[in-house]
Amino acid sequence: MTCPNGAGDWKDKTMNLEGKRVLVVGSGKSGVAAAELLRKKGITFVLFDGNKDLDVTALIEKNPVFAGAEILLGELAPEDMARIDLVVLSPGVPTDLPMVNELRNRQIPIWGEIELAYHFAKGRIIAITGTNGKTTISNVIKNIFMKNGIKTGLIGTICNEIGDETVHTDNTTPMAFDYMCLLDKMVKAGCKYAVMEVSSFGLVQHRIGPTHFDMGIFTNLTQDHLDYHKTMENYYQAKKMMFDECDYALINTDDEYGRRIFSEISCKKERYGISSEADYYADAIKIKSDGTSFWYCYNGKSQLVNMKMTGMFNVSNVTAAISVCLKAGLPIEDILNAVSEYNGVKGRCEIIPTGRDFTVICDYAHTPDAVENILKSVREYTEGRLICLFGCGGNRDAKKRPLMAKAAAKFADRLIITSDNPRDEIPEAIIDDILAGLKDSEIPFDVVVDRTKAIHHSLKIAEKGDIIVLAGKGHEDYQVLPGNEHIHFDEREIVSEGLKLID
């Protein structure tokens, strides 16, 4: 199998690079990272840069890793090509350059820096993609492994983790350089597994290169990111890319796109879900405000699962996590013990303590499907009114805004429409788009543009037995304003402040 840029067999981790000459193409950030890795591994490399006027002295002063290396500029002569055993190509270098084509014609393997990092990786990679559920599944899997003494790395939306160490992240799927560094650190730290969320952006932008995954999970597909992908079909095809590079796939066949992807991919595959037609499924589900129980069914067996997380969507998420860990060889008893002790993911159906006779839940739901899922789940144990507060992000898929309103109106008793991350859009204009989805609805709603004031308002109107769902921000502790300005914004703190105001 070849990678998208026409490179050689990147999956071959057995290729012995000892005594080989590696050509690093590009002296930028990625080239530096590749050179540093090769230097650490004691492998000879040659640097090539197409800029014939590059100031080599300044380059070496800035990047000492190039000191002592052979550096070629401008053009790569045939005699130089003849001395090369492997090419590492930076992402910014066009793959259709005559030089690259000639290297390819000479049957010289061409890797990206990610392939290079993967070559040295000793752990196994479990990848999760889909619109919803990635964060919960990845965190549950990591928790199960760690509870059973298996050091594991995590690459995700909320943060990156190397064992118990937390590493900041700006993207669900890091840029290639950062991703490579993370994998290298995980290997050095003794991680046996890396569990990672894989976004559609990460796939189509080749941030992960064609990394090979030992296991891949597909959760679901609902409308999101169409400002980027334009159509659901493009969005689907982006997600599907991941399974071209998987040994084994676990697919949620409760989802219509899951059923489609299951029929179209060629790797070894199995199904999970709520339906008994799946290979791994949940049955006899009991959801309460303080937790959930269900029977996990597989291979003609069933095991009782007790967990602190709530919601039907989390039943599906945990079913996937259990199945992957079982596939990895962990005993079912040890898996379920870890699940029973897990408190859940920050910002995913997270109860914010209030000390009052009403409940406040913080959730990351920011798509129509996610809003419907959280409200449908909470609806089952709401004694009073279900109040949903939400907004929509600016500079993002505007088509989903009225759909978010319609989804919220299905299950909530009252809505509070506000801002999310407005970015460069006018908050009132975003809200107008949202309200278009309520034209045929009789649900009462309030519009409070300022999100802090909106949260305080929700607390003021809450009565005994009510549940307030703050949707959209979840784990985020910031708001994004015009000019990409980030301000501190933690809904837990705002709830605490609001409670003082109503005392």
List the helices and strands and how they pair.
Blueprint: E1 21-25, H1 29-40, E2 44-49, H2 56-62, E3 70-73, H3 78-81, E4 86-89, H4 98-105, E5 110-112, H5 113-120, E6 124-129, H6 134-147, E7 152-155, E8 160-162, E9 165-167, H7 176-188, E10 193-197, H8 200-204, E11 213-218, H9 226-229, H10 232-240, E12 246-252, H11 256-264, E13 268-273, E14 280-288, E15 291-298, E16 301-307, H12 312-327, H13 332-341, E17 350-352, E18 359-363, H14 368-379, E19 386-390, H15 400-411, E20 414-417, H16 427-435, E21 445-447, H17 451-461, E22 467-471, E23 478-481, E24 485-488, H18 491-501
Parallel strand pairs: 1-2, 1-4, 2-3, 4-5, 6-10, 6-11, 7-10, 11-12, 12-13, 13-14, 18-22, 19-20, 19-22, 20-21
Antiparallel strand pairs: 7-8, 8-9, 14-15, 15-16, 17-18, 23-24
Structure, explained:
This protein is an alpha/beta fold and 503 residues long. It folds into three domains: 96 residues, 3-Layer(aba) Sandwich (Rossmann fold); 221 residues, UDP-N-acetylmuramoyl-L-alanine:D-glutamate ligase; 152 residues, Alpha-Beta Complex (Protein-Tyrosine Phosphatase, Chain A), CATH 3.90.190. It has 18 helices and 24 strands. An eleven-stranded mixed sheet has the order 9-8-7-10-6-11-12-13-14-15-16, with helices on both faces. The protein has a six-stranded mixed sheet with strand order 17-18-22-19-20-21, sandwiched between helices. The relative contact order is 0.08.
